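Entry 14. Two folds queued back to back today. First construct below, sequence then structure tokens.
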Amino acid sequence: MERYNGIGIPCITTTHKLEIVGFNDVARNMFGRALTMTPMGEKRIVLTALVNSNVSNFLAWVTNKDKDYIELKIVCNGAVKHFVANLKSVKDIDSLGNETQTYNFCFFPLDSYHSLNKDFNLYRSVYMYSTQAIYITDHQHNIVSVNPSFINLLSRSFKEVMGKNDGMIYTADSHTKLQKLLSTLDTERDDISERLECIRMYPNGEPEIICCKVHINVIFDEETKEKQYLHILDDVTQQVSIEQSLSKAAYTDSLTGLSNRMSFNERFKDMYDSAQRLGEKLCVFYIDLDRFKYLNDEYGHDYGDLLLKHVSERLTGCFKKQDLVARVGGDEFVAVIQSDEDIECFEHIALRAINELSKPYTLHELLYTCTCSIGVSVYPDDAVDQEYLLKAADSAMYIAKQNGRNNFAFFDLNHKKTEDKHQKIIKIVEKALADKKIIPYFQPIHDVDSGELVSFEALARYCNDNNEILPPSYFMPSIEQDVLLIGLGVTMIKQVITQLRMLESHGIMIPISINLSSYQLLSEVIIKQLEMIALRFPQFVPLLKIEITETLIFENNQFVVVNIARLVECGFRLMLDDFGTGYSSIYSLKKFKFETVKIDKTFIDDIHSANIEDQTLLNTIISLVKNLKLKIICEGVETESQVSFLKDQHCGFAQGYYYSQAISKAKMLDYIKKHSKKDIFLPIKITVQ
């Protein structure tokens, strides 16, 4: 009876003849001394001696076991109390090898039993009517109990699952995972919560995979002392679907469906680590579309977006499924290959991408051709650092663009050093603009015949921390396609207006003109700045002349044409710089209504050339401009003989070291008083270079 001593209810063990052979302390205390009055070896007390009434019913119940319990009245130390008796029959083998049978009786006080029964019914209701799917397995993971919600969730019948191993309700991977988790119970933790894939069976036999949050607790069978497992399943399939959608949105470019920058960074790191571990190469392709901005500006972003979608589809087809292809910027893509192939293989892939992307695209009603430039870098040849490997490919891409676009180039260290220098200068200019270290210097322009001062050309200069004055050639090549060029233009315009106001205060009304590049003429900031000047300082509008270059680009860009028209409408006059070189055309002279043409220095240098054709060409240019009734300014005049030649040709005006180098604004007033007639005031020319 030792197993019953810890139980708080009376328990008695009898033979099959109901002879009492054991009892616990609770039974002895409750049923009285009668249990212990029989000496050892004498006739044993029969359990019926304790039953106060309905002995026949009791004996019939013991014999038939037609129900789990029976109500009895039992004498307890002279008093009669009501109990509910429970019986369990136990078969065993004695020391002689004979089979024996004993009965274990448990007696519940009637009041306590009803309370327990009420609790049991409550727990049973919770189990049966819970919306959560619940099932219990034995220590061998065979299903011993399920509730209706389990049947509904997995569309299985009671007969299908009872007594079966619970592996049948999980996918193979999830069941393996579950077994590993169960092995940690009792040793590392008391319960488990994990998302697992379950198999729902439809009536037609078709399976469906659903995701369930499975919570598992260990329970113990008090009689067998064996583990059982309580499983509670919650269907989280919809939640997982939402999470996956959100995750996809976070890691996928919404326009093209490719990996976005966040996803690229994570996958690139994984591939880089893998390449290091396996000793393989990692090849990075940095892909930039050529002149993509033109498409957006000319036709609108709808066309640009459609092109990006088509490019993404073609680009994906150029690489394998395991390769990484991502959109990391507006029209910038990066592809990464982990491989042990040689360089020739990477060249072949780059050529294939260039050929595919250069084929015509159908964008709505427009048949459009777009090329690309590709930079290629290889680990570990070009870099052993993940970040530098990407920068190396980016640097190589600029080499491809400089080589004419629609091309690819491998990383070149010397070119990277040049790019680094450009980036350094960009930062210097950015700081210089903030610190107001970019200032105008003014080069005089004189009348060739009289020698009188007629105007100035203002040139941007950088005054460094050592007060050294550096020319535009130091910084302009690095920022000519950078947004800093807009800031530089605005800074120069403001400083020139300030200088004009200073001269006006001295009674000198000398005009100023500004030189704008194609990049600046596309800027709404620059155009609005000049429109504001026309409103605030109308007296300066006749004095300002706008010098422009690259007219072929202007002719083909409607936005530039519109912006130039806005400036002309304000009253500003136009000058054409470097005529005879670059993209200048006679057609543009009439289309944009230029007032003055500047002849480039290269033609002036050839005045005294032994080649008669050089002089003939210059004479032809001067004659052409005169016939168009346009004014002429010759640049780069350095000798008296050059001046004499220009006098003979009646070319008008000139500038160069023969007259003066560019001077600071502090010296400007004295120069004007010394070299110009007091009754003649001609425009000051400002060139933002």
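Second construct, same run, same settings:
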Amino acid sequence: MTTKETRNIGIFAHIDAGKTTTTEHMLFESGTIRTLGSVDQGTALTDSLEVERERGISVRAAATTLHWKGIHINVIDTPGHVDFLSEVERSMRVMDGAILIVSAAEGVQSQTETVWHALRSLNIPTLIYVNKMDRTGVSAVSVLDEIKRLLSPHAVPLQTPIGEAEDFAGMHSILEPAKDGELERPEYVQLVEACADVDEELLLRVIEGEPIAPEELRSILARLTRQGRLFPVLFGSSQRGIGIRELLDHAAAYLPGPTGDNGGELSGVVFKIERDKTMGRAAYVRLYNGTLKNRDAVRNLTQDVQEKVTQIRKMDGRKFADLGELHAGDIAAVYGLSQSKIGDILGSSERIPPSPSIAVPLLTVQVQAEEEARYQDLVEALQELTDEDPLLDLQWLPSERELHLKVMGSIQLEILSSQLESRFGLKVRFGQPSVIYKETPSQSGEGFIAYTMPKPCWAVLRFTIEPLPRGSGLVYSSQVRSEDLLTSYQNEVERRVPEALQQGLLGWEVTDLRVTLVEGEHHVWHTHPLDFVVATPMGIMNGLAATGTTLLEPMLRFRITTPEEYGGKILSDLVQMRAEFEPPSILHGRFMVEGIIPAATSLEFPVKLRSMTGGRGVMASSFAGYQEAPPETNAARQRRGVNPLDQSKYILSVRSALSSQ
């Protein structure tokens, strides 16, 4: 199998748009499975977790394989609920192409837009599939207008639906010539013009009146789609199996295959960790270059460790198939990589694409075992779950016997509770979730530490700290010469700065700042390699004490749609919640308003909205970044561990911890 015969395709959408049903029908139409599963009945192939079958929603990205007209297609069905956006993020990194599903009934929703912008930032070629064309009241024209307005003006339909709503019976291909071979049909002309809008050479030919034959137009469309300049739109009803074969045809013809050389240097990335009851821990690997075989020794570049492959397997229909080896461009579950984590690079990093950043946990919550005696079991279970979803970011405070997780929302908490009980036999209680704030320096300043007592020790550091615009994160650099401070010591400082910024003056992570090491000094005899582990947090906190910090709160971009009569009350509530919004619009008796709102003030509002409107009001939201909180906001968090500003106490604490390791 060559890379030309392979496709790596992610299925993305807002919840309930029909991703899993579409994937199930793709597997069925390709002959990969003989009987159709059902999301509602809990029998869909890619909903393998017990909690997914019970609730009818996807929680984890599921990888499977099908074959279509000589093409080997790796399909990853991703969750649609915003609480599981981290699964979408990790899957997106390893895809060469995407199918974005839009429900004809609900149109473009908040998750649709979030995923779309991430796909565009990575320039992943994308087909748009409009599902549920058989639903009452749908309009192909309306949903296409919405796609062009909210996603891209370069979304081009390749089909015209035959009937709509209850009368939907299939599609005509615009690329098929009329019976008399005539090419001047309006929809065909519009398709040619849409291609010409983004292709200068074609535009010149169109201006000169040169006819473009369907076969050539197919070739042009495929090229422009693979370049991420055009986005074909297809229609169907997955529940009834209408449009699935055409979707597979277009995915094989228009989405690109991977690149890579089987004989080249090994280059791959771990994007998913799963545990199998019989086989144990599986690391899902996308291989970009080289070949991986059973019993191969593999270098984990990220962790600088060597591991040995024991088995390579791929999901094929309802069973795993042993591969023996994995080739460039392919995806499989690799066993034996016991130390590898999500995001780790295997071999060379040269071909590995960047990871998108769309999933941002906004809540922190404490979790406790209902049976106190099972505290240690809970620690191990949460460590395992964090291994599979790093964004949970388990904070274990052994001295306080506290366990804290970062989560996206209430649905994720329900799923975690269910997983802990069904998989580990643990019943748990969650505390009241609280919003995750951040801090940023209020002004520029300087931090200094001369850690020279009690001997033997010697580490002198001076940092400058400057605030940066929102969204900048941490920018670190050093201006110190290696003769003043050895490179190995400077590397230790660089490693410790992000750790030191995890808790600022108010207890929250410090972000959007530039930290520059401007002075550093070691002593030939007195400096110990660990001295800079102790000194760096003290120097950073000394600097933050000089600059002061400003509290930042997370903001959500929202869209509320509701019956018109509730508009006035909703606008009043939005003002009280400190929302900033555009002038509302009213269409067909529906009131719609968009804007940004603090996460802290709006946590309970979706529930209130549903109650107020009898379930007819909907609030869709996505993360919009952090901005300065009002001065009166009181959100300081209790510091964990000893504060480096209390230098004597901190030195004793850290030195005793280091000596006991």
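Quick look at the second one. The mean pLDDT is 89. The chain has 17 helices and 34 strands.
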